[in-house]
Model the fold of this input.
Amino acid sequence: MNTYLDTTITLDELRIRVAEAAGLSYYGANADSAAQVNVDEQQIDSIDRAIDDGLHMFYSYTNPAARFMLWSFLRPTVSINISSDATAPNCIDADASKYRLPPIIQSWPVGNWGWAGENNLGGELTTTSLQSVARMHANNPSLTGYPQMIAMGPDVAGVNVGDNVRSFQLRVFPKPDVTYTLSAEFRVQPSRLRNPDEKHIAGAMNDAAVIAACVYCGVKEHGPSEDIDRRKAEYDELVVLAAINDVRNGPKTLGVMGDADMPRIQTVTRSSTYPTNTPLADIDGVPVSYV
Done:
């Protein structure tokens, strides 16, 4: 039986890579000793900040063709349970219509919320404002049933039960009559790496681009200054390759409506019969010049 290992680079290994590039690492007395970072809290803290900056830069990369953050690994489906007795996790103020979302969610969902209930029932909810949902509850205070309307907004009052964490709340109408599961796809920003054996969320396939991003941020802060432009160029090249792989490895028809008989790759030129405003991007949404 094959054992497939997760070879994604760890925080400890990222520290070594950044320290080596910035001239902050050293080797032991033995000829076979590996590179090490000084056990200096200030130096490790500085390296960790460079890694934070590098990961944030990589996660925030914008596809020039699509003009939005495209990483598939930053678009998880998040589910939350709602219940009629207000005992579901994250219920706010014992109100069966109000729930707090996980802190990793910092924006509205991609697309619509869906709901699933008993006996294979389910559907989509109509998204509206918190004010509209509050008005519906005021006009129909005793109505219960499957969720039909949903709204999201910052949890200004609760601030995650006193914690220093900014979070969102959602409210549904009507109040649930049984337990339902709500789900939606979100763009998220991962939490920082803090434990030495932690691994970034992008996976081993994107290690090269992640390393290049962190190394660039480390060299930018600690030098050598003559390496900054070279390190930035390396990152720029690797992040584009990572973006192409991310798009190509996703579902081929995700979010695409079109003629299935048409070829997947088309050459578009200004002299063709296509309109002149046809975008010159034709391979899975990635500009031809990047392929």
Notes: The chain is about 25% helix and 20% strand. The chain has two domains: 11-71+192-248, 76-185. The helical segments are 11-22, 41-59, 130-139, 207-222, 228-248.
